[in-house]
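U., I forgot to send this yesterday:
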Amino acid sequence: MAKPKTLGYLAERLRATLDGDPDYQITGVAGLEEARPGDVSFLASPKYEFLIDSCEASALVVPKGYSGSFTGAKLHVDDPYTAFCHVIVEFRGEANRRSPGRHPTSVIDPDAQVGENLSAGPYVVVEAGAVLGDDVVLWPGVFVGRRAKVGSGSLLYPGVQILNDCEIGDRNIVHGGAVIGSDGFGYVSSAEGHEKIPHVGNVTIGDDVEIGANVTIDRGTLGSTRIGNGVKIDNLVHVAHNVVVGDHSLLVAQVGISGSSTLGDWVTVGGQAGMAGHLQVGNHSRIAARAGLTKSIPADTTVSGFPAIPHEESKRVMASWRRLPDLLTKIRDLEKRLRDLEHDLEDAKVGKK
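Result:
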């Protein structure tokens, strides 16, 4: 359990303006509805002001200029959400770290290079030629293959596999069940069947990357599948062979990226979106949830739908779809009226004869 921290200390760490007693001891961190006396919470948006009257927190991180109804201590900051993230780290930042040491059931090859303060849990396996940086934490069941590299300060949760020759940078977080460096899905088809294409490349991952649970990142056929610095990947994402994901991009749950596609920097791909192979996505582009990208797109583009088209156009298409039942009714009515007119016209022609 974290040690209590004074409001004065928190104000200094957050570069906040404190309205309250700097010596008051804060013992925990919680949301507005869960907070109890001694806790610090936060208010990032006025729409949650209605929760303040029932909030029991002793202190609140609030926007500068806040003048709401909260009567406890206030830490005024430019960005309450970001500041509160730092507060969480202050109180809970070490919750998922493990004390340095090797469990007796862990197996670390004598030819592996191991940095200082390694924490290796039960049934961890580190093979020959692997390189582990300082302060690496390997939870139970982690596998690090031959010649693989894990950067300093990285945290690998239970069941993570870093396969042969793959490299992850410093301060990475890899959640349970992720597989880095599995073979790509590549075959040569003929009348005799499907012959496997060998995948002899690797995966390289930059610094400060977070990879969600059960993510799979395939190794390159030749060369590398590359994930840039600061990339955040949600659960159940698949990145195929030789894909390049630029710095600080976001891949939300169940995204699938086909082989040899390249995403620029700061790209956002929404949940369940899919991309065909060999595409180029420009910097700062956005692919909406459940979109299907079949063509390359330039920088600063937002697309949605299937096949993915510019978002404003896609919204008009979706609006038209919602009107289709009424339009079909109108068309049937017009068809009936046209048939009636044609029948009347034929009757008129017969009458003239």
